[in-house]
Amino acid sequence: MAVDIDEADIFVLTQNLQKCNKLTLNVDKSLKNISQTSSQSSRLFAPILSRNNMLITLQRNIESTLNSVASVKDLANEASKYEIILKKGVAKVGLKQYTQTMHRVDDMLDDIKNGNEKNAEFHGIMTHLGNLIGQSENELKTYFTSILDTIPAFDPQINLEKKLPFPYYEDTQLVELTWILDYFYNNSEGSFIEKELTDNRSSKIIASMGFLVPFVKRITDNKNAPYEQGSNGISNYTEAFIGFIVSEQGLLEDIYSQYPDLKQKVLDAILTPVLNSYARLVQANIKTVESNIENIGLYSFELVESIQRIIRALRFDPNLQKNDTLSSCLGQIHRLSKLLFKLVQKLTILTKFQMIMVLLKQL
Predict the structure, then answer these.
(1) Nearest by Cα to 265 from 176, 346, 197
(2) How far apart are CA 91 and CA 97, in angstroms?
(3) Which residue of 33, 84, 88, 212 is most buried, as measured by CB atoms within 10 A?
(4) Model's pTM, two decimal places?
(5) How far apart (Å, rounded) are the C-alpha atoms in residues 232 and 84?
(6) CA of 214: how far to CAs of 22, 217, 228, 237, in Å?
């Protein structure tokens, strides 16, 4: 039987095609199996990968926490060393070391505030350091006051009579006062220590001048007795005030040499309460003169002279010269002088009349 060649080729091709189809079906089946296996693997590995990522994050957090704890511990140890020094007080450790330690605590607190350590772990240290600085500044203020108090209130009349200078601070004390002022003006509220200085000095001056007040208040022993010139203490009281003005100018020259722009303001704050006290006493004496001008009217001239001396002593500061209470005193005295002048005119006329009457009787 003869075989057609074309049919033979078709038969072979058909068989090959069938084999290819079968092979393709097997490949597709294998790919499906692989896909299913991959999906199952993905489902199995997803929790593992998630867990692994969580562990990595946890590790990072733990490392960060350990670093924070180490940083907090280091800062706490450093702060503790400084606290031990500051708790001893200025008198024990010395002013220089005390303020240097305060500077270090200030710097540490600034570093924390301005650095990256802004998490909750550092809040406690920041609070503690802030409290430590506050307590140390109070200690420094107390020490500052103790230096100022080494010169207590005194009777200036004794110094005036003996021609002795008013008590003044030692050079070492001036250095310490300057050192403390410098700390506050550069690291804290300057007004905090400034007010301590002005209040202390004002009260000391007023208390010292208080020794002379009884002699100023006494004008005459007897209401009906005429005033004896120079018997009242207003001249000595004025002399003492001028002495304190000069003394306080010298003090501020010594301790405010680094802050020349503040000297005048501080001096005004010291002298204004003293000036007001002086003016109130003068006002009281003016009222006394007004109530008994016939006998003690001449005393008003001593008041005028005393106030003019004070105004001349304050020529370095026009604001103090224009003090309201002092200006009021001048106004009252000027009115009193006019009354006194009119009284003198009346007395002069009366005296002349009496002389004429005597002459007429003799004729």
Answers:
(1) 197
(2) 11
(3) 212
(4) 0.73
(5) 58
(6) 134, 5, 17, 10
